[in-house]
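job 3f2a | input accepted
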Amino acid sequence: MTSLRLLVTFCSSLGHLRDPPHYSNARISGTLGPVPSPKKPNVLLVMTDQQRADMTRATGFSLDTMPCVDALGRAGTVFRSGYTAAPLCVPARVSMLTGRFPTAHRVRQNSTGEHAVFDRDMIDVLREHGYRLGFAGKPHIHRPLEDFDAARGPYWHERGPERSAADESFDSWLADLDHGVATEPTPFGLEQQLPHRIVTGAIEVIDELTATQPDDPFFCWVSFPEPHNPYQVPSPYFEMFGEDEVPERTAGPEARDAKGPMFRWLGDLFESKRPGFDDQWRRYRSNYFGMLRLIDDQIERLLAHLGDRAEDTLIVFVADHGDFVGEYGLQRKGAGMPEVLMRIPMQISGPGVQAGQALDAPVSLVDVLPTICELVGAPIPDGVQGRSLAPLLRGEPAPAVEFDSIYAELGYGGVPYREDEHPDLHFSYEGPTLDELNTVTMSGGTRMVRAGRHKLTLDVEGTVELFDLESDPVELTDLSGQPELAGVRAELMELLGRWMIRVADDLPRGVYVPKTVPHNWRWAPTEQLSMEETP
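job 3f2a | predicted structure (535 res):
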């Protein structure tokens, strides 16, 4: 029996909750190696919102926050260096669906999704190849829910659709938190929590898709609004990771000076709106970990419902971007491109995927679309900048020149605001309300490249920063001026330049047609590419 078939009844046997809501009662086991599928696989895409990559037991974290997701990773391939294309929701999600970086699809703010530029996205590709399309959860994308065959949503961070009286009461309580940190257990049950309601909707969507046309493969995107703020959980999750168990953070508020004006400005904004907000950092982390476990239990519930269909289902688990989770004395996101915001969980399990792999090759959200294209037998659309990971999923080696670095973007353009400027931030400043993604924090532009242990950023004003991620994981010591690292800086600057040329929009609009290569591996030597015909 395959790993995934047994996984659907795995997680509850771990005994990972105090008085937990169990949904299944067996343990994972299975074989290594790709499992062939006689037909196009179903695709289940599970996305969390604002989840850091380094806070599960499988990543070496001290607390066991997501045992079911960790087990799902062991049944497939985990990418230990997954990166977002941009550390905010809509640009990242549009990048995943289109396989294009924000400067190419032109969505660089959360408010401009409808302006996305692309040829064909994931929805188009899968529909063209016979898939029934489903969605449940938070969209925050460029497509309306009407483009899916079955959908439940939209859900946001403080409300869901078609609410019962109990749901409406919970949503009102959630809105009153104003994206803050709850200091007591949520006074509503698990059934009112958005992840539970979303999984209920996802189960309905999958049943609807398979009931009407059972022989067609289905795609279902399950999109959780959490562990994004507001940070709250009910019992027993509130008590599950006590404040006394919360590991120390690597950098507190004092680190904002080392990180520069944008970090100081954002910290001052929080302090002006919510004086003493950082005093709650342990509770904030505790709630965040509890929400990860709550989501994990709902993923377990969804897999249990999937049943034998899991054997023919590709399961992709990703997040759109990370969260400070207290680093630098900050919450949420909004300043710079530190690893805690840029690195995301990313793993794929299912037919044709080598089990038991944990790969260090840096990959990106933009790689999801071309990977799914290859796994379902579809050509990669024009203008896609991501790389197919399908050969890596099969256990084939990754060409170093193609997979030894990764790139990402931040900023909507214009001239960056100075630390002492106070422009209109596009929302009311009555009470504690604030938006960390605002006119100041998103102004200008920054680009990053990571290769090996080093990471380099360059902003529109020419400021270069260089960090050694092994010795300085929270990037407090800029090494760009160190003479002994001049060679490293030069190499990464050249690499960043190559990436910026590579991700310039090459969507065909005239008589000239860009040359393509297998898997969209543009830098790999010809002899390392598959001998199959270029799409």
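job 3f2a | Residues 281-306 form the longest helix (26 residues).
job 3f2a | closed
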